[in-house]
Structures are given as structure tokens and as C-alpha cells.
């Protein structure tokens, strides 16, 4: 199973707690962006886990909720530790789902390119507007109120995650995502 | 016989075509091995007008450079923090008239002249970057691909890519890189920088000095330890005496042993040079008898021990049955070992009484690649400790890399020293054919002395679940503390290094096996086979 799939994501050294927090937050945000764009829910995540033979890590809604609840940005943070295998599993699930919705991601990016070239705000297009609204609402609903972000910050975060997800939808997206998690955790713990 | 290869990758906004010649080596690989690759890349998305479509041609080196540049840039872009991204986004979306026309015009266009580059959102690259292949961000969603020296007359110096184009280009290059193994040409493209002429002269001078110094050293007499720079003209005249003196002189320099004819001191753990020299003494006795009629060069004398040991690690049954095939196989192994990364640095292995030496490895590989045709192969000369190592035929590429270490892991005491030889005989079985070809006998030899081997094996037998895609054994060196706790895990080979996290090693410093007698623990070699088997060996016995 899983060991064969997960073996391709090495960890050069045991991450520090701050780096682990960064990884957990990034994973949860990527999944949040995916939810906001595609409208998928926990059932899709569980199906992906089943497809990838990762049900021993993500077996049901409760385990999925516990994994995502490990993000330090969440309300009621720190309920569960996230070990390396669980992080790898979430990476694989995220990239699998991003790949399934690659056409939607491409369309969203193409619209964003078009609007940016025309100097128009991204909300002008329904796909991007809906995505940004849903992302912002869900973020404020789930994340710690102490981490309140401005609308501009949330828009930038949502668009950055959108572009990231596009690249993660590639065949080697999981390797890119894993490398990004590690590098970001070192650079911006 | 060569077969032409043509590949075309067609993501929505670009087309990458490759053509080359299939190498006969492809039969040994699960990926196509292609040489003489030429590529043609077209940025030809449907939103580009015909005059805005770009085509680039080049060879394999250029394609690899392009792959590296794009892959690195994409990863750097993904690693940007939200704050960095937001700054870029706000800048790009600001309704400044100086920016918007640039974006409008730059989205699908190419910039054909370096004198009129597109307005960059990021800082302009420095002059050195302008001449190299690289990418730079252009606002939020655009990216400049600077072709650098690869730009041709009919292609622009800079190509502006949208994010979707960059995505497609990166995917096409990734797919190429994942599907095809390219074989480097012996004569790289002329755009590769060649060393300056003075560098060649300096290299020739260094080579001349090195060769001259070596000749002087090799020409010294046996009793001239304190006068190593004595010229060859002062040496004794007899050819036989000269050959012997050369050998002894080399031994002195290698091992710092006072005299090769004196009884050797007991081997000391951690002194590699002594171990290596002692090993050489152990093999020299019979090797000299074998080769007394051969007028060997000094180089052959100094490498004789390693050569014999390297040979002895091979499957002896196969060697006896088909010596020619074994020689061919070793010759075929040599490039593999030589082309892969070297074994871990000696400093990481410093506690080990045995280990690799960067100076000896090339010799060992050279010996394996070009064994002297007239040198007899006598398996009975295998030192006892080597029976604790698995036969080399059971090893993968990663392990072959480590052959220099095994070559040098000859017994510290298989020499003229009677007491040392007696101790080795007591602790290990007398070497025989079965001992060489069977890892089980090696295991028994070590486990009779160190029950910790059984404990290590038991631990990993429970832990080890081989992944399905594992094709060769993973090899690790385990360095333990005298109290039995794990001190260090040294992965040997790239596959072992990348799989360390899935093996399930115990934490460093925590109790692992029972404690060792004495103040040191011998290094242990761990093999995790693809079929789930776990093999544990001592690297040496002190």
C-alpha cells in the first residue's frame, strides 16, 4: 500500500514543532481551497482515500475531521498530532482530487489571467467570485478568530492556493506539494 | 542495432517533440534510453496568434537545462509565502496605466529583441542572468523565459509565458524526464564552456609533477624510510630486489608500519590505515608465492590485496564454473559503480574499524574493471571476516558502490602474526567455499560471537515490510553504542537514503539490543531485501 506510495516523500530530518505546525496549516488550507472551488465534501475525501488505499489513515469522517483539526489555525487547535504518514496521505489525497478537477482549476486560472491582463478584479467572473466568497466565508467560519485576516489578505491567500492547486494537479504534483510543504516550513515556519 | 525514437508531448498550450536514437542499453532498463536527442518545443497555445507562436530547437543538453530551469522555477514559485504573493498580486492588479498596457500586450506575445524587454514586475535580472537560461516572474501570472545563449536568430531572447503555459511546459518536460533516460554524448555541444587554455597547462603541470613524484617514490630502496626522496639512481640495481623494495616502500607509506617483516601489532579499532595494511600483509604471503615469477609493477603490488578481496566477494561457484563470464561481469559492473555517487564520507564512519577510503576506491574499481589476465583466482585466500559479508551477487547497485569498503575490510589479523591469526580462527569458522557463497554461514559466524546480531535481525524482521516497487536490497550501516543503543544509521546508497523513514529504525540513544562487552560495539551491516528477508552481518570482528 501505502508504504509504497508514501515512500516517495522522504523527510530529510525530523521536523521541528514549528515546522510541523506550518505543514498542518498548509495542508488544511489547500483542502479548504479545493472545497471552496469544487464544492466537494468529506465524502469525496474519503473516496479518494479509498482509491489511494489510504483508508488506514483516513477511514471515516471523524478521522478526517481530526486530521484537519490539527491545523494550528483552526478553532480549538491542537486536538491531535499529525504524524508524517498522515501528512503524506493528505498530500496524496489533495493532489488526487486536484487532478480530478484539473480542468476546473485550469479554467479558473485562465479566467484569472484574463481578468488580470484586463485590469479587472477577479470577482467579476462568477467562477472566481464564488470561489473567493466561499473561501473567505469558510475560512472565517473555521479558523481562529484571533487570526482575523483582511479581505485583501484572504483574496491573496485564496488566489495563491488556487495557483498552487493547479500545479499540484499535475502528475508529479504530490512530489511538488511535499517539497513545498517542507521548504515553506523551513522558510516560513 | 539502433532504432529511432520519436516522442511528442502535446499539452494544451505547447508541443514538445523529441527524436533520437534508441540505445541498445534500453533492454536493461524499464525506461527508454535514447542518445543523440534533438528537441523541438513550440509554444503554440490557441490564444496565441500565429506570429506570437514560438519554436525552439536544441539538443539534449539544452533540453536538460530547460527542464532544470523550469522545474526549479516552478518550485520556487510554489514556495512563495502569501505575503510575497500578495505584494505581487496587489502590484499587478493596481490600475496603474504603466502596468496594464504591458500586461495586455505581454500576455500572448513574445519579445523578440533584448533591447525592448517586457516590463518586468520583479527586479531585472543581473547581467550574468541575462546570458543564461532562466525564468523570472512578470507580475502575478506571467513568467519570462530567458533563453540566454540558446536563443537563435529566428527565436526571441525572452518568451513571456502565462501560468497555464508554464504549467503545460513544466508537465511536458516532467513527462519527458520521467520517460526517457538520455545517454550523454562524448562530445558535448560547443556552447558548453571549455576550460581556459591556462587551465589545461596548469593541469598538465600538476600531472607531470605528480607522476614525477610518484616515480621518485617508487624508486626508493627498502631501507630508506627516512630518506624517501632518494633518487632511483641510488637504489640497488637488482630487478628482483627493486621490485621487493618497491612493495615494501609502498607499504610503509600506506600503513606507517615500521617493518613488514616484523610481527604485527594487534589491530586497533578505528585505525583504518593499519587495518588496511594488515589486510595487505595477510594476503601478501600467498599472493607473493603466486606471483613470484611475475614481474609486477609497483602499482600491481600495492593493489594486489584489494584485488584478491574484491574477487573473493564474487560468487565463487560461478567463478569456478565460468571464469570468463565472471570476468566479464566484473567488467560490466565497473561503470555502474563508478558512475554512481560515492559512499558516505569517511568521517561519518569514523568509529568503524573498517571502512572505505577515498584513495583506495578507484584502485578497487579499476581492478575490478581490468583484472590482470594472468592472475590466478584462488578463493581459499579469502580472509575470514569477508565470510561475514554477503556474496556480491546478492547485492544491488547501491551495494556495489560500497565495494571499495568491502575490499578494504580485510582482516586486521590474517597476517604473519600468530596470535592474531589464532584469535581469528577462534572467533570465526575457517573460510571455505560455503562460507563465501552463503550468507547464512556469515551470519552464524557473527552471531556466535555477538548475540546482538540476532536481536537486530529479530527487530527488523518484525518491522520490515518491503514496498512493492523495491527492486534491490536496502543496505544500512548501524553504529551502536556499547550499551546497545543505536548511535547512528548510515544509509548506503540513494535508495536506502530515501527509504530511511519507512524502515522504522529505533530512535537514537534508546535501548535497542543488549549491551556489548568492552568499550566499543562493532559496526553492523543491515540488508533489507525486497522479498522481506532481513540479513544482518558484522562488518568486522575486532
Keywords:
heterodimer, A: 189 residues, mainly alpha, 9 helices, globular, B: 542 residues, alpha+beta, 5-stranded mixed β-sheet, 4-stranded antiparallel β-sheet, 20 helices, 14% strand
What does this molecule look like?
The complex is a heterodimer of chains A (189) and B (542). Chain A is mostly helical and 189 residues long. Chain A contains nine helices and no strands. The longest helix of chain A has 22 residues, at 17-38. The model of chain A has no long low-confidence stretch (mean pLDDT 88). Chain B is 41% helix and 14% strand. Chain B contains 20 helices and 13 strands. Chain B is an alpha+beta fold and 542 residues long. In chain B, strand 12 and strand 13 (534-538) form a beta hairpin. In chain B, the strands form three sheets. In chain B, strands 1, 2, 3, 4 and 9 form a five-stranded mixed β-sheet that branches. In chain B, strands 5-8-7-6 form a four-stranded antiparallel β-sheet. Chain B has a four-stranded antiparallel β-sheet with strand order 11-10-12-13. In chain B, helix 1 crosses helix 5, helix 8 (272-290) crosses helix 9 (298-312) and helix 11 packs antiparallel against helix 12 (360-369). Chain A binds chain B through residues 3-4, 6-8, 10-11, 84, 106, 109-110, 112-113, 116-119, 121, 152-153, 155-157, 159-160, 163-164, 166-167, 170-172, 176, 179-180, 183-184, 187-188, and chain B through 12, 74-75, 77-82, 85-86, 89-90, 92-93, 95, 100, 103-104, 107, 139-142, 162-164, 167, 170-171, 174-175, 178, 465, 467-469, 497-502.
- Rough outline of chain A: globular
Parts with pLDDT < 50 across at least 5 consecutive residues of chain B: 94-125, 222-446
Q: Could you give the count of β-strands of chain A?
A: 0
Report, as a whole number of angstroms, the end-to-end distance of chain A: 31 Å
Describe the main β-sheet of chain A briefly.
none
Compute the number of helices of chain B.
20
Annotation, overall tally of beta strands of chain B:
13
State the end-to-end CA separation of chain B. Answer: 53 Å
User: Strand percentage of chain A, roughly?
Assistant: under 5%
Name the chain pair with the biggest interface and residue counts per chain: A-B, 39 and 43 residues
Main sheet properties of chain B: 5 strands, mixed
Radius of gyration of chain B, whole Å: 30 Å
> How many H/I helices of chain A?
9
Q: Helix- and strand-based class of chain B?
A: alpha+beta
Q: Mean pLDDT across all residues of chain A, rounded?
A: 88
Mean pLDDT of chain B: 60
Amino acid at each position: 500500500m501505502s508504504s509504497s506510495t508514501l515512500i516517495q516523500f522522504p523527510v530529510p530530518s525530523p521536523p521541528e514543532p514549528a515546522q510541523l505546525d506550518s505543514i498542518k496549516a498548509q495542508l488544511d488550507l489547500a483542502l479548504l481551497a479545493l472545497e471552496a472551488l469544487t464544492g466537494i465534501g468529506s465524502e469525496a475525501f474519503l473516496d479518494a482515500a479509498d482509491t489511494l488505499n489510504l483508508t488506514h489513515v483516513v477511514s471515516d469522517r471523524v478521522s478526517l475531521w481530526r486530521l484537519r483539526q490539527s491545523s494550528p489555525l483552526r478553532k480549538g487547535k491542537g486536538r491531535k498530532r499529525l504524524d508524517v504518514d498522515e501528512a503524506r496521505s493528505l498530500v496524496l489525497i489533495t493532489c488526487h482530487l486536484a487532478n480530478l478537477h484539473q480542468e476546473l482549476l485550469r479554467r479558473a486560472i485562465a479566467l484569472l489571467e484574463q481578468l488580470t491582463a484586463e485590469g479587472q478584479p477577479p470577482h467579476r467572473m462568477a467562477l472566481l467570485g464564488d470561489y473567493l466568497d466561499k473561501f473567505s466565508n469558510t475560512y472565517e467560519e473555521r479558523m481562529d478568530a484571533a487570526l482575523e485576516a483582511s479581505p485583501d489578505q484572504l483574496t491573496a491567500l485564496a488566489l495563491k492556493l488556487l495557483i498552487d492547486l493547479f500545479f499540484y494537479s499535475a502528475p508529479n504534483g504530490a512530489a511538488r506539494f511535499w517539497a513545498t510543504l517542507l521548504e515553506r516550513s523551513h522558510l516560513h515556519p | 542495432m539502433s532504432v529511432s525514437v520519436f516522442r511528442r508531448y502535446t499539452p494544451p498550450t505547447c508541443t514538445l517533440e523529441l527524436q533520437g536514437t534508441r540505445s541498445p542499453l534500453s533492454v536493461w532498463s524499464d525506461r527508454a534510453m535514447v542518445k543523440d536527442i534533438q528537441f523541438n518545443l513550440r509554444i503554440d497555445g490557441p490564444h496565441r496568434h500565429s506570429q506570437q507562436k514560438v519554436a525552439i530547437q536544441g539538443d539534449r543538453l539544452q533540453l536538460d537545462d530547460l527542464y532544470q530551469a523550469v522545474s526549479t522555477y516552478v518550485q520556487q514559485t510554489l514556495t512563495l509565502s502569501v505575503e510575497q504573493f500578495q505584494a505581487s498580486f496587489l502590484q499587478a492588479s493596481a490600475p496603474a496605466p504603466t502596468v496594464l498596457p504591458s500586461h495586455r500586450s505581454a500576455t500572448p506575445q513574445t519579445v523578440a529583441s533584448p533591447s525592448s524587454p517586457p516590463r518586468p514586475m520583479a527586479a531585472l535580472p543581473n547581467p550574468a542572468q541575462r546570458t543564461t537560461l532562466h525564468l523570472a516572474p512578470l507580475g502575478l501570472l506571467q513568467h519570462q523565459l530567458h533563453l540566454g545563449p540558446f536563443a537563435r536568430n529566428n527565436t526571441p531572447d525572452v518568451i513571456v509565458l502565462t501560468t497555464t503555459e508554464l504549467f503545460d511546459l513544466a508537465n511536458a518536460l516532467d513527462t519527458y524526464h520521467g520517460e526517457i533516460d538520455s545517454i550523454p554524448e562524448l562530445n558535448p555541444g560547443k556552447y558548453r564552456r571549455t576550460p581556459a587554455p591556462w587551465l589545461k597547462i596548469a593541469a598538465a603541470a600538476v600531472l607531470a609533477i605528480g607522476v614525477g613524484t610518484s616515480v621518485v617514490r617508487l624508486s626508493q630502496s627498502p631501507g630508506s624510510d627516512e630518506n624517501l626522496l632518494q633518487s632511483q639512481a641510488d637504489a640497488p640495481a637488482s630487478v628482483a630486489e627493486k621490485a621487493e623494495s618497491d612493495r615494501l616502500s609502498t607499504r610503509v607509506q600506506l600503513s606507517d608500519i615500521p617493518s613488514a617483516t616484523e610481527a604485527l601489532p594487534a589491530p586497533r579499532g578505528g585505525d583504518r590505515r593499519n587495518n588496511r595494511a594488515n589486510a595487505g600483509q595477510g594476503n601478501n604471503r600467498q599472493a607473493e608465492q603466486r606471483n613470484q615469477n611475475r614481474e609486477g609493477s609497483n602499482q600491481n603490488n600495492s593493489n594486489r590485496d584489494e584485488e584478491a578481496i574484491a574477487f573473493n566477494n564474487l560468487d565463487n561457484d560461478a567463478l569456478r564454473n565460468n571464469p570468463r563470464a565472471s570476468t566479464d561481469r566484473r567488467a560490466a559492473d565497473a561503470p555502474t559503480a563508478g558512475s554512481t555517487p560515492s559512499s558516505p564520507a569517511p568521517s561519518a564512519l569514523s568509529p568503524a574499524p573498517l571502512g572505505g577510503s577515498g584513495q583506495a576506491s578507484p584502485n578497487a574499481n579499476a581492478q575490478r574493471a581490468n583484472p590482470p589476465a594472468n592472475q590466478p583466482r584462488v578463493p581459499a585466500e579469502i580472509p575470514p571476516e569477508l565470510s561475514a559479508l554477503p556474496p556480491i551477487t546478492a547485492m544491488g547497485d547501491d551495494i556495489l558502490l560500497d565495494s571499495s569498503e568491502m575490499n578494504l575490510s580485510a582482516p586486521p589479523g590474517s597476517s604473519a602474526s600468530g596470535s592474531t591469526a589464532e584469535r581469528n580462527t577462534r572467533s570465526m569458522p575457517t573460510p571455505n567455499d560455503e562460507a563465501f557463497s552463503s550468507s547464512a554461514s556469515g551470519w552464524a559466524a557473527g552471531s556466535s560471537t555477538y548475540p546482538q546480531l540476532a536481536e537486530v535481525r529479530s527487530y527488523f524482521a518484525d518491522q520490515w515490510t518491503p514496498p512493492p516497487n523495491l527492486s534491490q536490497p536496502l543496505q544500512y550501516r548501524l553504529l551502536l553504542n556499547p550499551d546497545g543503543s543505536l548511535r547512528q544509521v548510515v544509509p548506503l546508497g540513494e535508495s536506502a537514503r530515501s527509504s530511511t523513514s519507512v524502515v522504522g529504525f529505533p530512535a537514537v540513544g534508546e535501548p535497542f539490543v543488549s549491551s556489548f562487552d568492552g568499550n566499543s560495539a562493532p559496526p553492523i551491516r543491515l540488508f533489507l531485501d525486497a522479498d522481506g528477508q532481513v540479513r544482518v552481518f558484522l562488518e568486522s570482528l575486532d
